[in-house]
Design brief:
With 358 residues, the chain is α+β, with helices and mostly antiparallel strands. The chain has a domain of 119 residues. Helix content is 48%, strand content 11%. The strands form 2 sheets. A 4-stranded antiparallel β-sheet has the order 3-6-5-4. The protein has a two-stranded antiparallel ribbon with strand order 1-2. The longest helix has 35 residues. Pfam families: Tll0287-like. InterPro entries: Cyt_c-like_dom_sf, Tll0287-like_dom. This is Tll0287-like domain-containing protein.
Amino acid sequence: MVLLWEDCYSILSSEILQNNGMKSLVSLTLLIGMTSCGGSSKNEYLALSSTNEIEVVYQDPQAKLLLEKHCNVCHSPTAPQGEGRIAPPMVAVKMHYIEKYPKKDDFVKAMIDFVNRPSEEASLMPGAVRKFGLMPYQQFPNGSITEIASYLYDYTIESPIWFPSHWEKMGKGRFKQKGAKENVKGRQDGSHYMKQSWETKGLEIALKTKEILGKELMGTIQKNGVLNALEFCSTNAIPITDSVGVVNGVSIKRISDRNRNSLNKASEMETRYIHQFQSDMQSGIEPQPIVEMSKDQVQFYYPIMTNSMCLQCHGETEKIRPEVYHKIKELYPLDLAFGYTENQVRGIWSILFPLKNK
């Protein structure tokens, strides 16, 4: 699928970086390699028992997934320090907030206040604001930021390789992250855990694909501009998605009931799922993955959301830059992917896991 929300987010973020004189180019080969390393679920620890129960050792799974879905695309824990980065890593945000607000209630409240009303005056990271620009206001499902902030305070999170030395060079002393590494053990019946496991795997693959597409598009914009990025997407978005699928042994599609590329048109059933996710969002409910299991395969669906940044390509036509709109119509004469506002379901991820017959 071409230019869904994550692509549009990268466009505006890249233009901000370009205005700040930054350059970025991330190799697809490197990113595919990163995907290969992260293809299996990190939350899955199975210990089958004679009672058909599964013992699971895990960090708070819901909050961890919220962090990955809503934060890590921009606040990447893997991007290098000098390129491919459009915001500081989340561990940097966590460290600055804990330094200022050592008590959990204060930490959570301060983070919620900033997300709801971002400003340079309220920022604890003026250097990051100078480098990347101020984080724009975005809407999130009810309670999501509270869960994310609580998770950041309670648990250790992934840190870039370069960050500990960077922290020390800032005069902050030896890097030591607050938080537990594991939560307590829990019990779940086997069938319930199997479904949760596929949800986790599907989300990991969807989020990694989104990260790869965003970084590739960002590099194209910084080198050649937005109009060339539109052409890049028209010829490369689907092949890149397919490549990630091959690495992970799955089929990945991004589909929409209001598609830009005809190859990404939703079926009648997929359209019903899109409408279901839209209804959840309108009710302020955090969307949950849909997992359909059969003897031969597992089908995973999850929504792709708009935010304030992607509206430059998918928003109301009168608000899209004329040269961008004309280029879109040139590439996609039958385009339907416009007229969106912030925090709407733009399409869905469809990931098919084939099951090996034993």
